[in-house]
Specification:
By secondary structure, the protein is of the alpha+beta class. The chain contains 6 helices and 11 strands.
């Protein structure tokens, strides 16, 4: 079951490197979901804030927050790749993602070359309540590097921090057939109660890297 959890989050990781839809002003989550868990944040204009985590940031010029429909389309790209590569039924995979994961925010620059998101995973629903941040990143690296449809290199997880909280972070590189880097991603994992908070910051060019770093500097 732990491997299933990693595969679900891997879908999001691949989606971060893929394209995204056009801007849509509807960035709110479903009302019934928000009422169920108080750890979710929200946007006021271009500023995201989350009372539970204490994290606040304002989107750089040209950035926007994807709505639920746009996120679903992005995830379909990742799930299609995973289901084909690992011989997993795509409908079953999407159903499991819907059951255990909630995407608190997913923001992108206008070109789609940089993205930043937070996936809150209910570990009890994925039968992975004992999974640590280190184990999560190590297992994710194992699955990423085993793919045949894309070449991925993962560094060892390291101690890091986000908004003053200790967590684990892992740098990931996506390579083309010649071995050149075509995308980079940093995955931050922090466990809170029975939930794993997974932040993913990705970029496919130098401008995107700088823009993502500007958001991370706001968070601290």
């Amino acid at each position: 079951m732990k491997k299933t959890l990693i595969i679900l989050l891997l879908v999001l990781s691949l989606g971060c490197i893929g394209g995204c839809g056009k801007k849509d002003s509807d960035t709110s989550a479903d009302d019934d979901t928000v009422e169920e868990v108080s750890m979710y944040g929200s946007f006021s204009g271009d500023t995201y804030s989350n009372d539970y985590t204490g994290i606040t940031f304002t989107l750089p010029s040209g950035w926007y927050a994807l709505n639920s429909s746009q996120i679903s389309e992005l995830l379909k790209s990742g799930s299609a790749t995973i289901s084909e590569d690992m011989d997993i039924d795509e409908d079953d995979l999407n159903a499991q993602i819907s059951e255990s994961d909630y995407y608190d925010f997913y923001v992108s620059n206008a070109s789609g070359s940089a993205k930043f998101c937070l996936d809150i995973v209910d570990l009890t629903k994925s039968n992975s309540a004992d999974l640590s941040e280190q184990e999560y990143l190590e297992q994710m690296a194992s699955v990423l590097e085993s793919l045949t449809s894309v070449t991925v290199k993962c560094e060892d997880p390291q101690d890091s921090s986000l908004h003053g909280e200790a967590l684990k972070a892992m740098n990931v590189s996506f390579l083309d057939t010649s071995g050149a880097v075509v995308g980079v991603e940093t995955i931050f994992a922090i466990k809170k109660e029975t939930y794993m908070f997974v932040y993913m910051a990705s970029a496919t060019d130098n401008t995107g890297v700088e823009e993502v770093q500007s958001i991370l500097k706001q968070i601290g």
